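Re: folding output
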Amino acid sequence: MQVHAHGLNPKDYSIRSGHLQWITGKRFPMQIGSDAAGVVEAVGEKVTHWKPGDRVFGYLNLYHGGAASEFCRFSEKAIARIPEGVDYVTAAAIPCANLTALQALRDWGRLKAQQRVLLIGARGGVGSAAIQIAKVLGAHVTAVSSSANVDYCYSLGADVALSYQTDNPYAPDLPYDLVLQVHGGRQPFYERSRPVLKRRGRFVMLVPSPKALANIVLSRLLPWPRYYFFPVRARTRDLALLGQWVTEGKLVPQVSKVYPYDQLVEAHRQIDSAHTRGKLVLRVAD
């Protein structure tokens, strides 16, 4: 793919800074970047679904990326066609955050219409996507963010938006069917969530840790709500579904700022700050 736009993710910082060496390995320098949108430049001899000139967007393995470049190589099963009317910047903001939210809610959380979900950390790319996707699935959404982002969460469709600075999300009127922990943090989110989850409720987290592995095991041995961590998978059908929702207006990727390619360092400094609403996108080519 000739990359026209690249979407940044917080894990780019985690990988670059060496915080995830237990997953990525310790060999540096290392390629980063998982989200890209652009044009097919060339295809392998066994590729049948794509041809040079196709406008596509896709997802690379987040821990061994390479999308932050002018050209990168994708599996044919990790890309989808950019819908008519969707630009490269919008398409580049879709893959990681929206695949993560979709698979966390639908596949691992098994979220259904009329069920209740608590989203912890609803400000960033995944949180912004999760609010919208949960509403597409017909769920009742309680979103937790800072006080400054409460109105933002309501604007995305949250039924209830709470501030972790002034409100207590662990005192709901009715128990939750699912708690999705979007951001890392060191707080005992699972321990706090257990009393407010239904007996067969689920807790899904996105950031792995040794303590998380212990809780995953304990949730199978004890009468606790099930605890899940999952790897995001690149699937053409999921990317195509997300693209369809974008064209239908059900899903609006939240792009807070677009940087030119020569400001990659500045874009990463903003990601490092951990105070970004939605997504940052790098414009690589016109």
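--- second protein (sequence, then structure) ---
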Amino acid sequence: MARVLAILLVLGLLGGTAAAFVITEGLKLEKSPVTRTHLVNQLFSPTCDCSKDVASIGFQLRRVDTVTATVVTPQGEAVATLAVHYFRRSVEVSWNGRDEQGSVVPDGTYKLRLHLAHHHQTITLPNAIRVETTAPSIAVKAIAPRVFSPDHDGRAEYVKIAFSVSAPARALLYVNRTLVGRGQIKRAGGTIHWYGKAHGKPYRPGVYRLSLRAEDQAGNVSAPTRAVSVRLRYIALARNVIRVRSGARFAIRVSSDAEVVRWLLHGKTGESAPGTLRLRAPRKPGQYRLFVTSVGRAQVALVVVSKR
């Protein structure tokens, strides 16, 4: 009799194990009630005052349900409830990086926990949401040249700014405090160029102050660097008015990075290297215009000729 009971006990255990295995395998094959999860601004900053100050989470339900969506810490502690609502299929919720009291949460990783009332099931989505509110820092290492001319002659076409960043970030280039350029995300530093333009429009010759800011992937922006002055110059004359005796020789300084400049004065023309241009005044007293050109750009000086 005892032997029969032992056999029945063994058979019962085997049957129970088999049944548990079947149930477990069935659960493995059961499809998740949530599918097609996607995040916008998975890394974001609730304090950046930019397009990345909110994270959006979307997903699809296989069946209609009442969903409670809660942001939780890695330890499972509730931070903020985003929705308690009856959804048909598509679900879209947003989180501004704040807790139930409206305070910005500490930097770190968070997840979205879903409770499905109809399914009597709670699911924590695997997609991590990261809050980052600390702005990177940026330092200018070098700026050269300080005088440039974007005239397509292959010499001093742009200003090159070398920089370093404290964390992965892009450089933002400002000219006279106006944003004119955005670089690529760099891990430790790099370079950014200014070609004397903003949004395709060229700047006029003159002195401009360049500065940088750093923007990280979460949208945090650093304080600006100290501004550095550069000169955009195509061709420049040292004087606007030249006073000279009739027939006398005179000189004027011409600044340009071109190899050759061309001049025109009272019907006479010539070429010279940039630097000191030496010419002879017309013999007839009067006022004349001296034109000096370089790579399609021109400067004009007034030559006032008096009697000997």
